[in-house]
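Troubleshooting: if your tokenizer reports a length mismatch, compare against these two reference records.
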Amino acid sequence: MSDTMVTMVTTQLLSLKEVFGRLDPSKVAELLSPEVVTLGQSIVDDVVPMQWMSSIPQSVFVELPTQTKRLLEHMNTQFLSDFTIAMQGNIESLFNVRDCVIDQMMMDRSKLGILFRKCGQKELDFLTNSGLWFGFLLGIIQMIVALFWDNPWSLSIGGLIVGYATNWLALKWIFEPVEPTRFGPFVLQGQFLRRQKEVAAEFSTFFANEILTSEKMWNSILTDPKTTPAFHKLFKDHFMKFASAIALGFKSFPNPEVMSMAAAKAVEKLPNHVHVLHSYVDQQLGLRETLRVKMEQMTSAQFERVLHPIFEEDELTLILAGAILGLIAGLIQQGLTTGYLTIPTWGDIKAGVKNMKDNMPSSWEDVQALLLRWKTSVMEFDLKQVVSRRFQKMKSRVRALLHRVSNLKSKSSSREEEDGGDTSNALSPKEP
């Protein structure tokens, strides 16, 4: 994916603090609270079965007073709410949206192609079909030139120029002029730029549904090597406070090393419990609407960088491909004009078809006979004999060439002798 395009998405269209500030910490805590019970029990079983929790009778957890249960639930909710608020305040250090977008594109490269087709399908169709219209108009000019310059090579050269100019004009038509420009009664602007609202809707829908989903963002937060240290530290600090408060409530003092292990285990197991948030987060962040509105508000110069960078990477290739195809078409025209190439007539085609029908085997016996002839010819084929014949022919041609060179040399020497004799006669004194 074009680096310019990624930068545009991550810097101009999204404000992480604004977007994640839409989450309600109390709602997040409400959704995650049931998961904390399962998560906590799993951590206790893995890390602290024989430590400070072992001194607490199991009956205490089963038969806690209602008031104590409510207090624990409140502490649980408060922990989750406080942690959500802390994440919102530090989201830029916890979530690298640029890496998240690039990772999605690298893991499934077809996504970039899908996005490109969704946003630029009309431009691709125009680039394909423009050859007919631009080629026709430029072909008229080529025809006029041919009337005044009667040279078969004008067709090949003209085809090269027309092929080059066609794709060049199509690309210019798509992206230029960037700003609306009045030309008499007309307002000219690049075809892609005139579709800003339509493209904004397609672009934002694709990003919200395929790239920046809650699941993909949480996965990036929990696994990106650049941001996981900050997330682990933030979670560990809040988890230590939460666990210490609960332990003090039971008049127990946990080992700091055990608490650190428990926090690490909690982070490790957290990906299996955040799925309860995905539906709420996707709905509450409203990324599709945010991206759409921000893209519609972009200036024409900014919006032009959404799709043009992808064309720019292969722009020269597109133009040269048009030039080569134009040259090939011109060479074919030149061959037909000069007679080097001929188009078979309808009579030739019918005769060829009739000849094929006549030579086709009409029965299984004919097929067997034909196969037998092929087999016999293959078996009788002698490569050494074929090479020998070729060598003899080449040898005779070389001899003939040497003979011709020898004759030319002898003729040249005889002429020199005649010229020398004439010169000596001219220089000798005349007899009286």
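Reference record two:
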Amino acid sequence: MVTRLDAVVHSEGVGRRYLLEHSAGSGKSNTIAWLCHSLIRIHEADGSRRFASVIVVTDRTMLDDQLRESIQQIDHQ
């Protein structure tokens, strides 16, 4: 899923909306973390970043903590 979205962003650019759906226990946090990691590393031809930042919004404190840890683990690999 992350690879497909990465390809779409490369080909279609920014400014579009996407909905990702997952069932319970299917790895949503990992998908979100890897997608953030992938999006922030997309660069334009001139070397500038395509996205200055990636914002993740959740409705649960526990999920906030889980996502923060997942993203930090990926960044430190």
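Descriptive notes for reference record two:
- The chain has one domain: 2-75.
- The radius of gyration is 13 Å.
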